[in-house]
Design brief:
It contains 14 helices and 21 strands. α1 links the parallel β1 and β2. It is α+β, with helices and mostly antiparallel strands. The chain has a six-stranded mixed β-sheet with strand order 9-2-1-13-21-20, with helices on one face.
């Protein structure tokens, strides 16, 4: 590893994309410095479900998703992260939802999509088939679960203990040709990777404008986990089938969207992706969400009607009679209506990487491979 005072690589941003890039660079023998405006990872990477949902993504990004999965497996083993592999359970409550799952299973094969009958689906969710309304489902066995409140901070701590320099509480104003202008002065490196998330406009405003990058705000909650639900639960629903590109490309997805608009107009109105994941903390919580709203300057307020709607629908599916809410919060990430990933190189020594579709946790280590190898991103 280089011992020069000027590092081989500066990474701007300590979110999971930036940290995965630093981890891959360190494994290449590069000297690395990470610069972040906060004192620790506090952004989108700790605000999400911790759900590495590889399988439901578009066909075109599956190679990157596989690289990311292996990266998560390797990093979890090396760093000591909790990383469960229970797969993702998708319960179907209507024939149209079930048909989307059948089509997806036929398209991807049993290695990636395992169809389940109603009894098996309910058993994997820990619910009673008599009261759930579930008529079948599927398991996506390659998907993973991590604890979002642990993963990025632990990875940053591990990197720091292995020679990566972290410069915290430092705002970055501009980056060009190996030079990073910050609130603590100028830093230089052979190469700079900028991973600013929804703060892209603060460093590259023209790029943010050209790519239509804005902030997506999510309504999230944590509740006590009943004993009948597993700590490694990952559950998607019909709204997820209409949202994730792999599932949404199936022929019956159009009919599903029409059905959801008629059956669950409130969920459609708040652009819901109703999903639940379990947490391995001592008291065993469940993360529930989420709605989506979009703005260049979001308000900080959570609508109780939206939060209650998501809590009610999730509780119904999981047979939770009296959910006990621990926390509510707003998740925030970068979004664009025109692209899922901004991977831009404004000069020979600078790479800008922003996931603009809420799947940064899922694709993080795969995108880091693209960055380190100077590869172009597939269109998806």
């Amino acid at each position: 590893m280089s011992t020069a005072s000027t590092p081989d690589l500066i990474v701007v941003g300590s979110g999971i994309i930036g940290l995965a890039t630093a981890w891959r660079a360190w494994h290449r023998g590069m000297s690395v410095q990470v610069i972040d405006a906060a004192a620790r990872p506090t952004g989108a990477s700790i605000q999400n479900f911790g759900h590495a949902c590889f399988t439901a993504q578009a066909d075109a990004i599956q190679t990157v998703a596989s690289l990311s999965r292996q990266g998560w497996v390797d990093a979890a083993a090396e760093v000591g992260l909790w990383a469960a592999t229970p797969g993702t359970i998708l319960p179907a409550t209507t024939e149209i939802e079930l048909e989307v799952l059948r089509e997806f299973a036929s398209h991807r094969g049993e290695r990636e999509v395992l169809l389940l009958n109603a009894e098996d689906t309910c058993a994997r969710l820990g619910v009673s088939g008599m009261s759930s309304g579930i008529i079948g489902g599927a398991n996506l066995p390659r998907d993973m679960r991590v604890n979002p409140r642990e993963a990025a901070p632990a990875l940053a701590e591990w990197l720091a203990s292995h020679g990566v320099t972290f410069t915290w509480n430092t705002s970055v104003f501009s980056v060009s040709d190996g030079c990073v202008h910050t609130s603590r002065g100028e830093f230089r490196a052979a190469e700079v990777v900028v991973c600013p998330g929804h703060h892209l406009s603060k460093i590259f405003p023209d790029l943010a404008n050209d790519q239509g990058v804005r902030t997506c705000v999510l309504t999230m909650a944590s509740i006590d986990r009943p004993d009948h639900i597993s700590a490694d639960l990952a559950m998607l629903t019909g709204t997820s089938m209409a949202r994730y590109d792999g599932l949404a490309a199936m022929p019956s997805a159009t009919a599903l969207r029409a059905e959801l608009a008629d059956r669950e107009p409130e969920l459609v109105d708040c652009v819901a992706n109703l999903m639940v994941t379990g947490m391995p903390d001592p008291r065993g919580g469940l993360f529930i969400g989420d709605s989506h709203s979009y703005s260049d300057s979001p308000e900080p307020f959570i609508e109780e009607s939206t939060a209650s709607l998501l809590l009610d629908r999730a509780s119904r599916l999981l047979g939770i009679d009296r959910p006990v809410v621990r926390q509510r919060w707003q998740g925030r990430y970068a979004d664009s209506s025109s692209t899922n990933l901004v991977l831009h190189r404004p000069d020979d020594r600078t790479t800008v990487a922003v996931v603009t579709s809420g799947i940064g946790m899922t694709l993080s280590f795969g995108i880091a491979s693209l960055i380190i190898n100077h590869d172009d991103a597939p269109t998806f």
